[in-house]
Amino acid sequence: MHILVIQNHPGSPAGILGQQMEARGAWLQVVEPLTGAAIPQSADPYDGVLILGGAQSAADDAGNPYFADLFALLRGFHAAGKPMLGICLGSQLLARLFGERVYRHDHVEFGFLPLELTESGGTDPLLRGLPGRPHLMEFHEDAFDLPADATLLMTGSGCRNQAYRIGESVYAFQCHIEVTPEIVRDWARLPAATEANGGADPIARTEAEMARHMEGSARFARQVADRWIDLVARRLAAGLRKAG
């Protein structure tokens, strides 16, 4: 399986999601637009796409001219029925792709916060069997309206739209399910983390929260990655059977 990874920011790699996908035999091709890498022109060579987070706003087309090419590429993935998985900024870009707005939230969400699976989330192919109230890493200042055709899978008290699915092949998570301890520690050193944490020490906070929640977050991410790769494999096999 050939998975395209859009790494929107150098500090936001695929983390546990990427590790688990590779463990399942997927080949990840990472494209970093902020380093000057070109967005692929076609979805044809790929079996799925992972769109990661970043510090930029999903609503800022002028500041991110590569968005136009990215939206064109993602429309190609959707038209072909190829699975897409968006994380944080990626979830916001997918919301825009499906006609909804992205806007500044009334506060910055930061840290391992309690979320809740909806009734639909509890029976979803990717999420069923997972704890109904996981604590997952957040670090975002924007939010989005839920696309009309989306099914809400997870919600939170501080930001309602935390995960959704469109059809069978599009998944998006506002929360950072991909994080490793190293990623969290790198983020906690950023001035933006101190600001998001109300001026208090974000390093002490995240270390304490990781001691309680990192293991559960990692299990959550590995299951999502496993089942998403299963989805990619099923879609690929179905396409091959149809072509044959």
Automatic annotation (TrEMBL):
Taxonomic superkingdom: Bacteria
SUPFAM superfamilies documented for this protein: Class I glutamine amidotransferase-like (SSF52317)
Pfam families registered for this protein in UniProt: GATase
Database matches in PANTHER family: GLUTAMINE AMIDOTRANSFERASE YLR126C-RELATED (PTHR42695:SF5)
InterPro entries the record matches: ChyE-like, Class_I_gatase-like, GATASE
Glutamine amidotransferase domain boundaries: 19-181
Protein name: Glutamine amidotransferase domain-containing protein
Signal sequence, renumbered to the chain: none
High-level lineage: Bacteria, Pseudomonadati, Pseudomonadota, Alphaproteobacteria, Rhodospirillales
GO CC, any one term: cytosol
